[in-house]
Write a structure and sequence with these properties.
Elements lengths: L1 E2 L9 E8 L2 E8 H14 L9 H11 L9 H12 L1
């Protein structure tokens, strides 16, 4: 995601471009929509998650979107199980 504008307004209306392989795939009007579009691009184009963010994306896959396509690491599964017990 490429963010333009005032950093204090990132959660509000800020133009955001989502790129895949340096090609713009969409423009969003706020960071939340851009994050959703970015997550969808990882799934649609079957892009590997960055190692530093893999656990976060695997959690979103299995718990938020109910996608079970990718292998869930044991640490992510433990967190999911703990949340389900709440």
């Amino acid at each position: 995601m490429i963010l333009n504008g005032d950093p204090d307004k990132l959660l509000y209306t800020v133009p955001v471009a989502v790129l895949v392989d340096n090609q713009e795939v969409c423009r969003c009007h706020d960071i939340f929509s851009a994050a959703c579009a970015m997550f969808a691009c990882y799934y649609m184009f079957d892009i590997c998650y960055p190692a530093a963010l893999e656990n976060i994306f695997l959690f979103l896959d299995s718990h938020v979107t109910n996608i079970e396509k990718r292998r869930i690491t044991p640490s992510v599964q433990r967190k999911i199980n703990a949340i389900k017990l709440m």
